[in-house]
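User: My instructor asked us to take a sequence, write out its structure as tokens, and then describe one feature of it. I'm not sure where to start. Here is the sequence I was given:
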Amino acid sequence: MFGYVFVNQQEMKFREFDVYRSWYCGLCRTLKRRGGFLAQLTLSYDMTFLILLLHGLYEPQENRGQCRCLAHPTRRHDTRVDEFTEYAADMNVILTYHNCMDDWNDQKKMSRLLYAQLLKRQYRRAKARWPQKAEAVEGALFQLAEVERKGSAQLDAAAGCFGRLMGQIVACKSDLWETELFELGFYLGKFIYLSDAYEDLEKDRKTKSYNPFLQREEEADFEEQVHAALQMMMSECAGRFERLPILKNAEILRNILYSGVWCRYEAARQKRKETKENHGQRSL
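Assistant: Let's start with the prediction itself. The structure tokens for your sequence are:
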């Protein structure tokens, strides 16, 4: 369930995208420094959003640098890190490890089990640094597994578990902003879970995997139901964001929350539409 919290680059200024990319590269370098190449492979855009969000809210010291890497070998590029970059790197490792184990338990993907085993040392280190967060993530995933095992068709039952997981990660401190950050992460997590379920409908139908949308898919207004549910989640999420006193990189964050998060959903919806149209033409 990674890769949904991304920018819409087409609607960004070049300067804003350069800033965004510098934080992404900073996270990449931090993952490599703390956990080597295996940890670096867990890199995700979702945690870059978290860094930007927490940096904008708390405004800690920002450290800039430049580097070359395999992805950008021809020229040096900017990197930015702060105290939250290391936190996001650890959360990235924890989430990736559990995601791999979930894929193994559900679909018996040997490659995912192997990666989880290779990542176990980095996971244990991250868990030791953030035991309460790791425990909260594990608890939410256990509840989610129970919901999926029972085959619940209630959207909130499954999405709420992943929402609580994201809420715990986003609310990184016990302070004045804890409630707002938890709720922001909660609704963002529900959006991510439902978007992922929508995108995976065809695959889950074929593999007979759990998906809360499967029992609704044949309803006439199914597409409208999905869009309304996702719109409600992001409306609540954006509402919490707008209550936070964030000025730095606020436009980048708004690009993500109001536009970027919808990119994969729109692509999935267009693919479903084309598939139905092609199927209808073949039926004729």
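For the description part of your assignment, you could build on this observation: The chain has a mean pLDDT of 91. Try explaining in your own words what that tells you about the chain.
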